[in-house]
Design a protein that fits this description.
The complex is a heterodimer of chains A (about 300) and B (about 280).
Chain A: E1 2-5, E2 8-11, E3 14-28, H1 32-42, E4 55-62, E5 73-80, H2 83-98, E6 105-108, E7 117-119, H3 121-125, E8 134-138, E9 146-152, E10 157-161, E11 164-179, H4 182-196, E12 202-203, E13 210-211, E14 215-217, E15 226-228, E16 251-259, H5 262-277, E17 282-286, E18 297-300, H6 301-305
Parallel strand pairs in A: 2-17, 6-10
Antiparallel strand pairs in A: 1-2, 3-5, 3-6, 3-11, 3-18, 4-5, 7-11, 8-9, 9-10, 11-16, 11-17, 12-16, 13-16, 14-15
Helix pairs in contact in A: 1-2, 4-5
Chain B: E1 2-8, E2 16-17, H1 23-26, H2 31-35, E3 38-41, E4 44-47, E5 52-56, E6 65-70, E7 76-77, E8 87-91, E9 106-109, E10 125-128, E11 148-154, E12 168-173, E13 189-192, E14 210-213, E15 225-230, H3 233-245, E16 259-264, E17 272-277
Parallel strand pairs in B: 1-6, 2-7, 6-8, 8-9, 9-10, 10-11, 11-12, 12-13, 13-14, 14-17
Antiparallel strand pairs in B: 1-5, 2-3, 3-4, 15-16, 16-17
């Protein structure tokens, strides 16, 4: 079963998502250059929890008028399998990549009333101040109550909000873009990622938002827990018995999404798919699932695209 | 919001103690009951209606109540003391203890306030467009803590010992501050856009407390140690709040300013900060 969108076949299937804990960090700096450097460093090696401690990515650049200190900012999202692991990843990544980066400061990006829990990330970071850290209070008895830590560093001070909101989030949103050539498939995927970046609360944690080596669970080798997604490798489509690459498709790229909630991931999937199908040479779009064995979220492509 | 208007009639020569003038006291009452609220003159108990014309409407709850006083009340004490919600506007000056121990809501005074305004304030917003007397937001004698929350914004100058024993909250002075500003403070934030007289921060302990001075300081106690001159990012958050939420336009001029940082009072092992804007 399939349906057409912009002349591209869309398989009537679903992306299978699973639950993770997510947090949003607003990194600000003297200018956009340093905010982006800190954000890129912090989100490095965080594509998949298959082998990384967390999944992380840049959500968007935040204009100065929207940041707490009026400086250019970047919104970063981090996802972990548990609150404890998320907190540990945030602590080590902020500690090694943001605290060390000139001129930066960090702020919570999920309000307490919207969060499922609050993580004491800044409050843990404060010990780096070795006793010279200063507690900063705002909003006692008036306005919004906030707590920060000012940590002395060689450059000056590092300002960190004490607590960061964490929510029960959704990981594993995905779709596969299949095209007649590598160039067409890459261009379509790039356009998909550009469209996804317009959707708040979603990141695509893989390089440039795109994964060229989707994986399947397990392998022929006992020591390997994940291996290349053989059903979707065009180069072996006629030699692999379980190939699912349609005729005429010679390249496949996967866009993988994590979001703060299921509707956001669905919206991002729809935006991405629509953008991808506008590129000539794209032939087929589908999604990866494991028959419901991996996670509780079934994000149907039809539902995402609003097709009845 | 329902508005109740109080207009002073002939006020007594002795100070009138009118703790009854709060949104909390009048909400849920009839005008007749409001007029019968007790006020104190010397050792006598009188009625509010004896000294104020009372008109308008009362609300069910304090948060929906606006009380407006139209006229000079320089000899009326405790206006707005202990209020927890709603708005109280005084078009004129007020006597001692205005807004003392208030916990919420907004008290706005278009004139000046006498001593002990906002003393031991716990929450809410106290605006004084004119000057404030001595012991603004301070602790009463013998009390270990002064302000523990809320915001006081003064358009003019303040007297001695403003913010004494401050623990939390914000004190914003757009004019000059007299001696012993923030004496014994142990937390909280004080911003002064005018000149600050000597002995600010005497025996301050710290706990994140600081005094930011934008218009110069007469002298710094020798028990404060100069650390550095820097551009503190954290101050941007406060300055933006002052400018955008509290209407203190001058704050916006210092967003990128450098500050000299002093730490003390080492006479008491304190870690409070005095930040002085570089000219």
């Amino acid at each position: 079963m399939s349906f057409m969108l912009n002349g591209v076949g869309i398989e009537d299937t679903f992306a299978e998502g699973f639950g993770m804990w997510g947090a949003r960090i607003i990194i600000t700096a003297k200018n956009r250059k340093w905010a982006n450097i800190a954000a890129r460093e912090m989100t490095g090696f965080a594509t998949s929890v298959i082998a990384c401690d967390c999944e992380a990515g840049i959500e968007r650049e935040v204009p100065p008028e929207e940041t707490p200190d009026g400086r250019p900012g970047v919104s970063v999202m981090v996802f972990g399998f548990s609150k404890k692991r998320l907190s540990a990843s945030m602590l080590s990544r902020i500690g090694q990549c943001v605290l060390t980066c000139p001129t930066t400061a960090i702020f919570n990006g999920i309000l307490e009333e919207e969060a499922d829990d609050m993580l004491d990330v800044g409050a843990s970071l404060r010990f780096f101040g070795d006793g010279y850290q200063v507690k900063m209070r705002m909003g006692d008895g008036w306005g919004e109550r906030q707590r920060f830590w000012r940590i002395p560093v060689m450059e000056g001070e590092f300002l960190a909000e004490a607590k960061f909101g964490a929510v029960r989030a959704v990981a594993g949103g995905n779709f596969l873009v299949m095209g007649e050539s590598e160039d067409a498939t890459l261009e379509a995927s790039e356009r998909a990622v550009e469209a996804i970046r317009e959707v708040p609360g979603v990141i695509a944690p893989f390089p440039g938002g795109i994964c060229r080596s989707g994986s399947k669970v397990g392998s022929t080798y006992a020591f390997l827990k994940a291996s290349t997604n053989t059903p979707f490798c065009p180069s072996i489509k006629h030699t692999s018995p379980d190939s699912q690459v349609p005729a005429g498709c010679n390249s496949v790229l996967e866009v993988i999404l994590n979001g703060l909630d299921e509707p956001s991931v669905m919206k991002a999937m729809a935006s991405g798919i629509k953008a991808a199908t506008e590129v000539e040479g794209v032939k087929w779009v589908t999604a990866v699932n494991f028959g419901g064995k991996l996670g509780k979220f079934r994000m149907g492509l039809k539902d995402a695209l609003g097709v009845k | 919001m329902k508005e109740l208007m109080l207009t002073p009639k002939k006020l007594p020569d002795l100070p009138l103690e009118a703790e009854a003038i709060t949104p909390d006291s009048v909400a849920g009452k009839t005008l007749k009951e409001v007029k019968s609220l007790p006020v104190y003159v010397g050792n006598t108990v009188q009625k509010l209606g004896d000294y104020f014309d009372v008109k308008g409407e009362t609300a069910e709850t304090p948060s929906d109540q606006l009380v407006a006083i139209q006229g000079e009340c320089g000899n009326v004490k405790y206006i707005g003391a202990g209020m927890t919600a709603g708005r109280l506007i005084v078009e004129g000056c007020v006597g001692m203890h205005a807004g003392a121990e208030m916990e919420g809501g907004e008290l706005s005074i278009t004139g000046s306030a006498s001593n002990w305004a906002g003393a031991e304030m716990k929450g809410g917003l106290l605006r004084i467009q004119g000057d404030a007397g001595h012991q603004l937001g301070a602790a009463y004698r013998g009390s270990p803590e002064g302000m523990t929350g809320g915001v006081i914004v003064v358009g003019g100058d303040v007297g001695l010992e403003a913010g004494a024993f401050m623990r939390r909250g914000m004190l914003i002075i757009q004019g000059d501050a007299d001696s012993f500003l923030g004496v014994h403070m142990n937390g909280g934030e004080i911003f002064v856009f005018g000149n600050v007289a000597r002995r600010l921060g005497a025996e301050a302990k710290g706990n994140g407390g600081f005094i930011a001075c934008f218009g110069g300081v007469e002298s710094i106690l020798p028990t404060y140690v100069y650390d550095t001159t820097f551009r503190p990012d954290f101050l941007k958050l406060y300055l933006r709040q002052l400018r955008d939420q509290l209407g203190v336009e001058a704050a916006g001029e210092y967003l990128d300013a450098s500050f000299r940082r002093y730490r003390g009072d080492i006479a008491v092992g304190g870690t409070a900060e005095i930040l002085i804007a570089e000219p």
